[in-house]
Amino acid sequence: MEANKYLNDISEIRNMMNRSSRFISLSGLSGILAGVYALIGAYFAYRTIYFDGAEMGSYKSLVISEYAVYKLLIIASSVVALSIITGIFLTVKKAKVEGEKIWDQSSQRLIINFLIPLVTGGVLILYLIEKSQFSLIATLTLVFYGLACINASKYTVGDVRYLGLTLLLLAFLSLWFIGYGLLFWTLGFGVCHIFYGAMMYFKYERK
Amino acid sequence: MKNIIQNINKAFDHRIRLGIMSVLMVNEFADFNMLKELLGVTDGNLASHTKALEAENYIAIEKQFIGKKPNTRYMTTKLGKKAFQEHIEALEKLIQKS
Questions:
Q1: DSSP letters along B12-80, please?
Q2: pLDDT greater than 80 at residue B7
Q3: For residue range B44-84, what is the model confidence (pLDDT) as tens digits?
């Protein structure tokens, strides 16, 4: 009887510590869907780079026409926009079901700490694009997205940390395979998101 | 056994006080509304428990204004951190024993 009370106390302490410092309503399902969008986007990007380019006379080389660059930008921003919309929608839904507040100190802290490395990387990459230094872009997007995940993981479920570490590993690998950026993007943003999203989904959501 | 019981701190022997301390252990500070929402208690109830913890010197209270709105922030003191840590350790030991 007494021991039961102490056990309740301990679990109450742990619960309060987690709820007050971490935003735990993050939806794993949205991670899976973001991964699926990335795979679909990668397919269109692949066709754009390797087939549309060939029609214009450059045989399977990575000389990308201006038209293809615009198409790639549209594909990339559609994937990002769809992922963010899905993520917000599913996370809000999950928070409602769990009776958590969606816009409080913990979610704000999560977003701010996720954005710091992401915006830093974004600015750097835009600079490189402007200077036509394309070779490291795939690696750097993975690096900064990975660091953003690791930084954000202190304020949400811990699994996000391992997603970040995996992305960093992929980024280092991609250094030896410059020119295969799309492949590493697909692995990182597609396959990793699906894998860790599914892990979170089965761990926290499916009951 | 007697020693462990001594470490069970009476000041924390209440669900709300336990909650307040837990939140403050992992956050630099928390304001009144944040605590209220997290713990799901009324204003008066929360105020009386924070006063009790303050009287023990376990938490510090800081009143300030954000714009024109008064804002009360709470944070743990060094003494409070130590006492709460000992309380948790005592709880764990008691659970292991039984």
A1: G-SHHHHHHHHHHHHSS-EEHHHHHHHHT--HHHHHHHHHHHHHTTSEEEEEEEETTEEEEEEEE-HHH
A2: no
A3: 999 999 999 999 999 999 998 888 888 899 999 999 999 99
Min Cα–Cα distance to chain A from B77, Å = 17
Of B21, B27, B91, the CB nearest to A21: B27
Residue A87: both structure tokens together: 């993520």
Backbone phi, then psi, for B51, in 5-degree steps? -60, -40
- Residue A135 near chain B (CB below 8 Å): no
pTM metric for this prediction: 0.80
Integer Cα distance of A119 and B28 in angstroms: 26
Q: Which two tokens stand for residue A68?
A: 């293809």
Q: For this complex, say whether ipTM is above 0.85.
A: no
AA identity, residue A22: R
Cβ of residue B96 closer than 8 Å to a chain A Cβ: no
The verdict on a CB contact (< 8 Å) between B19 and A12 is yes
Which residue on chain B is closest to A22 by alpha carbon? B26
Structural domain spans, chain A: 26-205
| Identity of the residue numbered A77 | S
